[in-house]
Amino acid sequence: MTLTSFQPPKRLLMGPGPSDVHDRVLAAMGRTTIGHLDPEFIRLMDQIKAHLRAVFFTDNDLTMPISGPATAGQEATIVNLLEPGDKVVVCVNGVFGGRLAEMARRAGAEVTTVDQDWGRAVDPEALRAELKRVGPVKLVAFVHAETSTGALSDGETLAKIAHEAGAMVLMDTVTSLAGVPVRIDDWGIDACYSGTQKCLSCPPGLSPVTFSKRAQDVMNERQAPVQSWFLDLSLLTGYWSGGAQRAYHHTAPVNALYGLHESLVMILEEGLESVWARHRRCHEGLVAGLEAMGLTMAVPAAERVPELNAVRVPEGVDEAGVRRRLLEDHGIEIGAGLGPLAGKIWRIGLMGQSSRPENVARCLAALETVLQ
Ligand code: PLP
Asked: What's the superkingdom here (predicted)?
């Protein structure tokens, strides 16, 4: 048995997440642990909720981080909003839309899907047609930025179509939040979850969620209790929104929340418009460099997620070998394709702190060397 401390290698994280974590966030997480019911900690929780509202562009009272990866936030939105027999339409254009559909089925909902080619945005007219075909549904769910393919859907338009049909809207912003504009209130999104390890540039393990007043009313009128005790928002809010009466629910990940707080402060200091513009500029630089090398992008220009770039693997090139050499010889992590895109694309992330012009240049130079 080796009893030495683990020393992680130095990497540049340019895959589908996690992204690079700034020293300020790591330093914040290294500060003294205090009790999760300490009045000072409760002050921090209030600030985190306020900062999350600013990043989500919402006034939603029910806005907080769930203790767990983004999958926990995803499951929380589904199991709190849906009851057995509810009708749901899920737009599926990649892995994470597929998971939304599966979670809704497991919650007992009657699910139909709008299936889209992987690598394309969700077609708003296909959603409109499906809603017309199936009649009234409780919820429409979709992924804003499909990390498995790099396709960005038009959240505002999809939400509008869902609302016209009387449905609530659930949007996944795991890869989109703080990378491209996300405007929860302006777009009328009723429920949304994200993750800390992408453009928020924190370590993985927390999932910010936000719910509209309408969604809260629906949850308050449930016939049956939520089948998950841990993710039941009516119990969780006793801790996150209980004011002076805040009560123990679970032991919050205190130091992870210090990290999230610091990363939100950094994003708000820079300003969201500037953060979005930085992601856009880095994406344009990367695409120009890749195309100059003769590589091609897998997603049409108008439908690309700037922070997740899907690049076609040229014929005859060893897809996994290239990623291995980037990691071993250059310390750069990029991602592979998933599902039907496995072996066909690389996924180059430019998320949060990783989205810097110097990283674009370093990645392009390394890729050119490896492909020679
Ligand atoms: N949704 C999307 C769009 C994602 O990209 C991911 C993870 O990559 C998830 C959900 C699940 O996040 P996590 O792995 O943190 O549970």
From this structure: Bacteria
> 139 and 170 in contact (C-beta within 8 Å)?
yes
pTM of the model: 0.98
DSSP class of 155: H
DSSP state for residue 16 in the 8-state scheme: S
Q: Whose CA is nearest to atom 13 of ligand 1?
A: 70
Q: Which two three-digit tokens encode residue 143?
A: 């992924």
Q: Are 311 and 348 in contact (CB under 8 A)?
A: yes
Specify the pLDDT at position 245.
77
Any residues with Cβ below 6 Å from ligand 1, and which?
A: 16-17, 69-71, 74, 96, 143, 147, 172, 174-175, 195, 204
Closest CA to 275 of 304, 306, 311, 302: 306
Which tens digit of pLDDT belongs to each residue from 19-67? Answer: 999 999 999 999 999 999 999 999 999 999 999 999 999 999 999 999 9
Alpha helices in the chain (DSSP H): 23-29, 39-56, 70-81, 95-106, 124-134, 155-164, 184-187, 213-220, 233-240, 254-270, 272-292, 319-330, 357-371
CA–CA distance from 188 to each of 100, 211, 242 (Å)? 19, 10, 26
What number is the ipTM of this complex?
Answer: 0.99
Look at residue 95 in the predicted model and tell me its pLDDT.
Answer: 97
Q: Of the residues 91, 103, 173, 174, which should be mutated to test ligand 1's pocket, given the most ligand atoms within 8 Å of the CB?
A: 174
Compute the distance from residue 108 Cα to the ligand 1 centre, in Å. Answer: 22
Atom of ligand 1 nearest to the CA of 147: 5
Question: Ligand 1: distance of its center to the CA of 71 in Å?
Answer: 6
CA distance linking residue 185 with residue 167, whole number of Å: 16
- pLDDT by residue (tens digit) across 134-165? 999 999 999 999 999 999 999 999 999 999 99
